[in-house]
Amino acid sequence: MLQRTPPARGAFRRLRCLLVPCLLSACDACDPQLPPAVASSRYIEFHTWVYPDGLVDGAVVCMDDKLAEMDRFVEFVADALELPPPTTPIHYVHTPQALVSEDTWVCPANAGGCFDPDGRGDQKVVYSTHLDLMHELVHAVETPALGRSHPVFEEGMANYLSTDWSSADILPEFPTTLKAGIGPGRHPGGAVSMHFVGALLARGTMSQYVDLRRRVGHDDGLAELAAAYEHVFGGSFAQFLDDASATPVIGLGADPLCAGPPTIPWESPGPLDVTLPWACGDGRTFGIGKAFQTAFSLDVQREGSARMTVTSAGDGSEPEALLDACARGGEGGFNAFLAGGGRPAPGVLIPGRHVLSVLMSSDPAATGELSLVIE
């Protein structure tokens, strides 16, 4: 049976900060000094430990297009939650994995990012080892406006709005897994919490959801959650869990490239062999220092096994590439191919829109070419 790994939105779309709570408690924060901001947008002040002293001669920062996308995502989250957009900046602190230390990192060791709701004074602070961890931006919009709650709500909403996962695979065990994950120091995480949030919103309104969320404390157990549900929605909580097991939830966080015309034409079912130029300012490339990421979209016309190779015309450092199938119908998005080192990688194609994300090294010119072969 084909294992379809759900992609997480942004930051090269790898699973991270999904199995551990991504919000810090006040006692968790070490109040680290933030490096100077190197870029900004309407809602985001972007900091990076790549340049701990701010912009210096030779600094390479290509974040304008990405920050514009992050601004749109912040507005999407606010609209989904029926909230006004933030009126104070979200401070996004980028710490590459190689620079993580006690002086630069306050998140759990096994997390790719976290949100500090207490921040520094009135500052909201996201910490991430990735350049664009959209999951944490959901926390940065929701938590200051609605306050803390049980992690099943906090993480469930962040997953629901930042991924296009399907919960179809967890339906049979959903009631059991959810109940086992409710309690102090526990939460069901991943697709289970996302399914819970999506099922609640399918059952009622956002105002009912917010009311329920506010009635359940961070360390409350199953009894408190069930009582709060029955107060807000009426009916049996156990029956809600059983009913929710009938229909999968699809996350709302589709990649923007899943819509609109494809950026890579592929109109035949035969092999694909194309050269893909990229450059800072092209609307889909972003990066700091030598670490850059770009993305393309293509429509697949055939179904079946295939091999994908992505290589670079740069300095000999070969990129990592991930091909994701976009959500379609009642099926969520999933990882179809993961290729690296310039070597062919096996995978399975299905008809429909796919997004190719490529992580690569860049010279100071922040421009280059990639070769993509699917056969």
* Helix/strand class: alpha+beta
- Spatially, the strands of the biggest sheet line up as 3-8-9-14-11-12
State the order of secondary-structure elements, H for helix, E for strand: EEEHEEEHHHHHHHEEEEEEEEE
Q: Give the terminus-to-terminus CA distance.
A: 22 Å
Shape: globular
- According to DSSP, the number of beta strands is 15
Q: From the alpha-carbon coordinates, what is the Rg to the nearest angstrom?
A: 21 Å
Mean pLDDT: 88
Largest sheet: 6 strands, antiparallel
How many individual helices? 8
Low-confidence stretches: 1-20
Strand percent estimate: 25-35%
Q: What's the domain count?
A: 3
Secondary structure: helix percent:
10-25%
Protein name: Lipoprotein
Briefly, what is this?
The protein has 375 residues and is α+β, with helices and mostly antiparallel strands. The protein has helices spanning 64-80, 134-146, 151-162, 174-180, 190-203, 206-215, 222-233, 237-244, and strands at residues 37-40, 44-48, 61-62, 90-94, 113-120, 123-128, 272-279, 286-288, 291-300, 304-312, 320-325, 334-340, 345-349, 352-361, 367-374. Helix 1 (64-80) crosses helix 2, helix 2 (134-146) packs across helix 3 and helix 6 runs antiparallel to helix 7 (222-233).
In words, what does this structure look like?
- The structure is a single chain.
- This protein is of the alpha+beta class and about 375 residues long.
- It has three domains: about 15-150, no CATH class; about 160-245, no CATH class; about 255-375, Jelly Rolls (Sandwich), CATH 2.60.120.
- It contains eight helices and 15 strands.
- The protein has helices at about 65-80, 135-145, 150-160, 175-180, 190-205, 205-215, 220-235, 235-245, and strands at about 35-40, 45-50, 60, 90-95, 115-120, 125-130, 270-280, 285-290, 290-300, 305-310, 320-325, 335-340, 345-350, 350-360, 365-375.
- The strands form three sheets. The chain has a six-stranded antiparallel beta sheet with strand order 3-8-9-14-11-12. Strands 1-2-4-6-5 form a five-stranded mixed beta sheet, with helices on one face.
- A hairpin with a 2-residue loop joins β8 (about 285-290) and β9.
- α1 crosses α2, α2 (about 135-145) crosses α3 and α3 (about 150-160) packs across α5 (about 190-205).
- This is Lipoprotein.
- It comes from Nannocystis radixulma.
